[in-house]
């Protein structure tokens, strides 16, 4: 076991900056990791290192299923496989990050450290999803491998599934116990045959230190160069063995808080004085064949259908705006725009919908949060008892809470209001102008600055309990490892949105009149039900009016998810062939997933929540719901169960000095879903250690699956009325009720995943150097994708997708016409690229004490093609699209110099220049071809990449106490704005960040 003072624990204190994603020991004279993957291996004591020379990269420090720490022989647990036999080499590329590397990056959340790996693209975190009100994913930290989405990446804790923190089924990494993590394995490739559904892009497996002894902690603080996103972190962990080293108890707790960064309201000023925001907009000219580009990309775009405190947008009074006091003034259009004062609200000299420059005070994007505020509180405990040598029973509990908050946008933009000239809140001068112009009303737009900003609060609480047994027994003369567990997890997610308009109340409140000398709401029904007149001119509505349109009980959603898993796995080597022992793994699993969601009555509908006393019946509102400006959550529930069995075999076929050493690895899994039936997954691959010293070839191909999740199967229904829906069967417009629902007829997505590569390490003629290059190709068919109501009907009418014909009726004699909007297995995704890893360690560089280590990890995405499956569309390649998450190149590099007393780390993060979209044709005015839907023209199709440098260091104050610092984005590199505000999936939106702290271990 690893005791205080051993190499494993010393790595935490002494080698805290040993390189992001690197365990420094893996670059020693014989780095075992490179034999298989080009990935790192945990620091181990010298006796362990000798045992692990043949280990695959993704190996634990607890070798057997029963774990070496309980005295078992040192078999290897490989995340990309269920084989646990010593000497096994899995063909799937795997990257490992150990506790020292996690400490080196000095992040308040381990999620950020893992998400920086180049193979992870499109992961979500506190800087993504901040512009959303209703998605339910604000502040949710989940991984996405290969850019195929978090729902296609399987995240495990000690090789076991974790209950989802969202109805899509993805867990929240912020809820994991973090200080006891000793290693994270990232499997870059399909692993459904080994682990089941969702492992299409790969697997991220967190391994905890179940035999930690001693007491350790970490205290950290941080702040940005702008004086915001103040951060604090306290982590403590303890472990002790009892009863002659048979009873092992570990526990950890942590509290972390990041204040987040909200916007600065309206206009173009961001929080903290950040000056990179330019209100960039991609403007559609709606002109296709005049020789100029259809789309133009411009900075400081000003919408001309609303402003901060109100603007008359059409008719003879167009161009009159109002200040905070409600006084009218002449609005300053950009582009030297001149209002047309016509019914259409055109502005001469401007683009459709936008002018450039002018009065930008009403723009709402600057109010968005750059990063959600987050607070984490978590506890973890595990008790294990060795009931015999090499055999353990255990129970663990993980109870954690994560709270986040974000501002999705400033105000509550309402651009298309009709105001009566007789409204008593209309200034006298405007009423006179109405009379002179012979009009009784006018069109009006406002950012609604007076109502303030909406704020989304999430509260996720996880209760996860595991009881299990693992170990090793001799059966018929050979050792067999077993691992059995039962897991029960519950996740409760509360979402509350504050300061959100009830749109229909707002419409009634702004329609004011005078009655008996008092200003009141014009509608008597609304007035009888509490309507208070709202002065929409300027920023001074009464408190009574605000209370009426912004009720104290805003939109909310309450979700409960449960997961129950029973799993049993065996692994052993019952016999040998000419080249070595043949290894087998087999097992089975049962899983049950359930969710139930309850929403507020005004969003879900009074009829669906009849006992919700907080939301009294109001005839002004729609009884079916959808009454909020944003945040119209719905009620729903659903469940499914999964039964599966697998077998895996590893057969060595070569073991000679002349030809080298090779093995073939294969696996198959049969899975039965209660909703979609039976599906198969398989893999076939192998490795070959060439007779050339240090070289290994590897390759694997697999059939992987992702089953539809609870959201896709049982989405809470949403009903919308479509008054002018086109019926292609009868060539007429009809009234249709659109029901957005789940689809229980969905089938699993099927993926074909292939990787092939070469690794170099362990060379006697070039010690310390390790390099690996792997090519990957993924094709996913039957991708679950959502369709609009018109697409559903059109696909049936054209005979392209007959499965859509059964979900609508446009000539229903027994009730309203309807279209059930559902997801279908229509689309496909094809992506391919190359992963590169290289590292070199130099002992006593230039005669200096200590060591120098350099490492680089890079991913090149050659293509990422999505085909929607819809007629008259062409596949879209998003490789190199820098408004997404799949740049052409992305790399991470580190250089570390360390001694027994101190260490210094430099880290570089870079991704390549890209485009707005590969579908665009860039051209200049006078030279553009005709623009089409599939190949539109644009004046600028370029989005710069970015380069960030980080620096960190440690100093060992004593043998038990280490002080450290970290500066991220050292040169305070600004993000590149985009037509969609900014892309936090790629760019650093906060700027330079300082962190410092103290780690200790006794």
TrEMBL record:
<keyword id="KW-0675">Receptor</keyword>
<comment type="similarity">
    <text>Belongs to the TonB-dependent receptor family.</text>
</comment>
<keyword id="KW-0813">Transport</keyword>
<feature type="region of interest" description="Disordered">
    <location>
        <begin position="38"/>
        <end position="73"/>
    </location>
</feature>
<dbReference type="InterPro" id="IPR037066">
    <property type="entry name" value="Plug_dom_sf"/>
</dbReference>
<protein>
    <submittedName>
        <fullName>TonB-dependent receptor</fullName>
    </submittedName>
</protein>
<dbReference type="InterPro" id="IPR039426">
    <property type="entry name" value="TonB-dep_rcpt-like"/>
</dbReference>
<keyword id="KW-0732">Signal</keyword>
<dbReference type="Pfam" id="PF07715">
    <property type="entry name" value="Plug"/>
</dbReference>
<dbReference type="GO" id="GO:0009279">
    <property type="term" value="C:cell outer membrane"/>
</dbReference>
<keyword id="KW-0812">Transmembrane</keyword>
<dbReference type="InterPro" id="IPR012910">
    <property type="entry name" value="Plug_dom"/>
</dbReference>
<feature type="domain" description="TonB-dependent receptor-like beta-barrel">
    <location>
        <begin position="473"/>
        <end position="970"/>
    </location>
</feature>
<feature type="signal peptide">
    <location>
        <begin position="1"/>
        <end position="34"/>
    </location>
</feature>
<dbReference type="InterPro" id="IPR036942">
    <property type="entry name" value="Beta-barrel_TonB_sf"/>
</dbReference>
<keyword id="KW-0472">Membrane</keyword>
<keyword id="KW-0798">TonB box</keyword>
<dbReference type="Pfam" id="PF00593">
    <property type="entry name" value="TonB_dep_Rec_b-barrel"/>
</dbReference>
<feature type="domain" description="TonB-dependent receptor plug">
    <location>
        <begin position="89"/>
        <end position="203"/>
    </location>
</feature>
<keyword id="KW-1134">Transmembrane beta strand</keyword>
<feature type="compositionally biased region" description="Low complexity">
    <location>
        <begin position="46"/>
        <end position="58"/>
    </location>
</feature>
<keyword id="KW-0998">Cell outer membrane</keyword>
<dbReference type="InterPro" id="IPR000531">
    <property type="entry name" value="Beta-barrel_TonB"/>
</dbReference>
């Amino acid at each position: 076991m690893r005791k205080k003072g051993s190499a494993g624990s010393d790595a935490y204190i002494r080698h805290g900056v040993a390189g992001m994603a690197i365990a420094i020991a893996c670059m020693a004279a014989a780095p075992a990791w490179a034999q298989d993957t080009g990935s790192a291996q945990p620091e181990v004591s010298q006796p362990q290192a000798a045992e692990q020379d043949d280990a695959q990269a993704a190996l634990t420090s607890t070798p057997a299923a029963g774990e070496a720490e309980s005295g078992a022989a040192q078999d290897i647990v490989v995340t990309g496989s269920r084989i646990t036999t010593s000497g096994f080499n899995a063909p799937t590329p795997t990257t490992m990050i150990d506790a020292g590397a996690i400490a080196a990056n000095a992040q308040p959340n381990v999620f950020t450290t893992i998400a920086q790996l180049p193979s992870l693209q499109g992961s979500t975190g506190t800087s993504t999803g901040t512009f959303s009100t209703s998605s339910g994913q604000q502040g949710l930290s989940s991984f996405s491998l290969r850019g195929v989405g978090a729902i296609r990446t399987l995240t495990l804790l000690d090789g076991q599934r974790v209950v989802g923190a969202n109805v899509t089924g993805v867990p929240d990494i912020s809820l994991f116990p973090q200080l006891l993590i000793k290693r994270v394995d990232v499997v870059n490739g399909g692993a459904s045959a080994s682990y089941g559904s969702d492992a299409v892009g790969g697997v991220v497996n967190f391994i905890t230190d179940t035999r930690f002894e001693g007491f350790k902690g970490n205290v950290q603080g941080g702040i940005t160069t702008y004086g915001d996103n103040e951060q604090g972190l306290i982590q403590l962990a303890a472990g002790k063995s009892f009863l002659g080293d048979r009873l092992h108890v570990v526990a950890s707790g942590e509290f972390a808080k990041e204040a987040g960064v909200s916007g600065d309201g309206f206009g173009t000023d961001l929080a903290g004085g950040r000056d990179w925001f330019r209100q960039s907009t991609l403007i559609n000219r709606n002109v296709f064949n005049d020789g100029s580009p259809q789309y133009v990309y411009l900075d400081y775009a000003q919408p001309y259908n609303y402003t901060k405190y109100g603007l008359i947008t059409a008719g003879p009074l167009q161009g009159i705006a109002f200040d905070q006091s409600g006084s009218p003034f002449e609005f300053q259009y950009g582009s030297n725009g001149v209002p047309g004062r016509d019914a259409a609200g055109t502005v001469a000299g401007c683009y459709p919908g936008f002018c450039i420059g002018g009065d930008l005070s009403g723009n709402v994007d600057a109010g968005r949060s750059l990063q959600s505020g987050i607070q984490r509180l978590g506890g973890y405990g595990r008790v294990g008892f060795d009931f015999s040598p090499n055999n353990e029973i255990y129970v663990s509990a993980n109870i954690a809470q994560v709270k986040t908050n974000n501002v999705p946008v400033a105000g509550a933009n309402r651009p298309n209001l009709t105001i009566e000239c007789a409204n008593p809140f209309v200034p006298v001068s405007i009423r006179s102008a109405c009379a002179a112009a012979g009009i009784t009303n006018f069109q009006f737009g406002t950012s609604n600055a007076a109502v303030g900003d909406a704020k989304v609060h999430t509260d996720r609480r996880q209760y996860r309990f595991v009881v299990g047994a693992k170990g090793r027994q001799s059966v018929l003369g050979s050792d067999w490892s077993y691992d059995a567990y039962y897991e029960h997890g519950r996740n409760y997610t509360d979402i509350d949105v504050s300061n959100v308009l009830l749109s229909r109340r707002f419409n009634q409140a702004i329609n004011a009149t005078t009655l008996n000398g008092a200003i009141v709401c014009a509608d008597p029904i609304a007035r009888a039900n509490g309507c208070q007149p709202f002065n929409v001119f300027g920023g001074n509505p009464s408190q009574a009016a605000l209370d009426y349109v912004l009720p104290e009980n805003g939109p909310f959603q309450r979700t409960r998810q449960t997961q129950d898993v029973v799993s049993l796995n065996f692994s052993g080597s019952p016999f040998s062939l000419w080249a070595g022992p043949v290894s087998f793994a087999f097992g089975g699993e049962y899983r049950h997933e359930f969710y139930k969601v309850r929403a507020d009555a005004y969003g879900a509908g009074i009829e669906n929540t009849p006992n919700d006393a907080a939301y009294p019946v109001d005839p002004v509102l729609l009884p079916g719901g959808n009454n909020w400006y944003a945040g119209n959550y719905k009620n729903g529930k659903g469940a499914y169960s999964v039964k599966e069995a697998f077998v895996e075999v590893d057969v060595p076929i070569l073991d000679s000095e002349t030809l080298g050493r090779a093995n073939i690895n294969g696996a198959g899994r049969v899975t039965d879903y209660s909703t979609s039936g039976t599906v198969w997954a398989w893999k076939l691959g192998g490795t070959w250690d060439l007779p050339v010293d240090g070289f290994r070839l590897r390759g694997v191909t697999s059939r992987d699956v992702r089953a539809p999740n609870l959201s896709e199967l049982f989405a809470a229904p949403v009903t919308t009325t479509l008054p002018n829906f086109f019926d292609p069967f009868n060539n007429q417009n009809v009234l249709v009720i659109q029901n957005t629902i789940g689809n229980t007829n969905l089938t699993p997505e099927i993926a074909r995943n292939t990787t092939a590569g070469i690794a170099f390490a362990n060379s006697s003629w070039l010690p310390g150097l390790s390099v690996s290059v792997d090519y990957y190709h993924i094709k996913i068919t039957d991708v679950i994708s959502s369709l609009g109501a018109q697409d559903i009907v059109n696909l049936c009418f054209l005979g392209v997708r007959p499965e859509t014909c059964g979900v609508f009726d446009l000539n229903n004699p027994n009730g309203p016409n309807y279209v059930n909007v559902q997801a279908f297995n229509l689309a496909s995704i094809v992506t391919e690229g190359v992963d590169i890893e290289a590292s070199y360690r130099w002992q006593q560089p230039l005669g200096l004490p200590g060591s120098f280590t350099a490492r680089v990890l890079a991913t090149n995405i050659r293509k990422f093609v999505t085909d929607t499956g819809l007629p008259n569309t062409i596949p879209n390649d998003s490789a190199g699209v820098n408004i997404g998450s799949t740049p052409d190149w992305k790399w991470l590099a580190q250089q570390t110099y360390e001694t027994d007393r101190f260490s210094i780390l430099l880290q570089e993060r870079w991704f390549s220049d890209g485009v707005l979209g590969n579908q665009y044709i860039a051209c200049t005015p006078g030279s553009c071809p005709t623009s089409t839907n599939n190949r539109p023209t644009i004046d600028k199709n370029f989005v710069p990449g970015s380069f960030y440098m980080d620096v960190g260091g440690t100093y060992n104050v004593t043998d038990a106490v280490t002080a450290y610092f970290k500066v991220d984005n050292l040169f305070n590199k600004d993000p590149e704005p985009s037509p969609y505000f900014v892309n936090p999936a790629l760019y650093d939106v906060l700027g330079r960040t300082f962190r410092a702290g103290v780690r200790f271990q006794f």
